[in-house]
Amino acid sequence: MTSVSFVLNGRRSKVRAHAMRRLLDVLREDCGLTGTKEGCGEGECGACTVLVDGAPVNSCLVPVAQVAGARVTTIEGLGGDHPLQRAFVEHGGAQCGICTPGMILAAVALGKKPTIDQMKTGLAGNLCRCTGYSAIYRSIEAAAKRRNRREAQPRNPRNSRNSRNSTGSGHSRKSGISRK
Questions:
Q1: What is the pLDDT of residues 2-20, one digit of tens each?
Q2: How many helices (H) and strands (E) does the chain have?
């Protein structure tokens, strides 16, 4: 047994495990993060994909000792409200759910505006038997468009969609007297 320290989903983490134990097993069994799935156990399907220092890896092939000092991100690390997670639900990219966490994390690694060719190349190591990939590509494109629209919006809080409920926004005064 050895002690391995790494940053897991933004928090410092330390686990005691055999150095050659699979990262997949440590995440699921020791850390309780069951979002990372085991598909083939041989690095062929991508269901177990996590990000290590921002790069997608098959956690079924990675000994836990290899992530010492690294940043590891699992699907739980995206918090449930990542644009890709929402888009996969809204656009049918998530079907049975086995490949979905790995597919989303591989898509995160593609960056903000991947082309269809970049998607095909970047997801080549992730297999899906349910969607035929077009729904997955559509989901990634939708998330990119949503993200680009958000980035293009002015930063002025009066122009944001939540401005009606924010302090200091242009509420009408009950007295009917203008603030000018």
A1: 999 999 999 999 999 999 9
A2: 5, 5
Please write the tens of the pLDDT for every residue from 74-113.
Answer: 999 999 999 999 999 999 999 899 999 999 999 999 999 9
Give the sign of the dihedral formed by CA 132, CA 134, CA 137, CA 142. negative
Has residue 167 been placed in a domain?
no
Query: What is the three-class DSSP state of 49?
Result: strand
Q: Cβ–Cβ contacts within 10 Å for residue 20, how many?
A: 10
Neighbouring residues of 176: CB distance < 8 A, sequence distance ≥ 6: none
Instruction: Provide the token pair at 129.
Output: 């038997």
Number of other CB atoms surrounding residue 104 within 10 Å: 25
Distance CA 140, CA 122 (A): 12
Residue 118 DSSP symbol: H
Q: Is residue 164 domain-resident?
A: no
CB-based contact 109:54 (threshold 8 Å): yes
Structural domain boundaries, residue 91: 2-152
**Residue 127 resides in a domain:** yes
Given the structure tokens 């997670």, which residue do they identify?
A: 85
Nearest Cα residue to 110 out of 98, 99, 96, 125? 125
Give dist(CA 127, CA 78) in Å, integer: 21
Cβ neighbourhood burial of 173 (10 Å; 0-12, 13-18, 19+): exposed
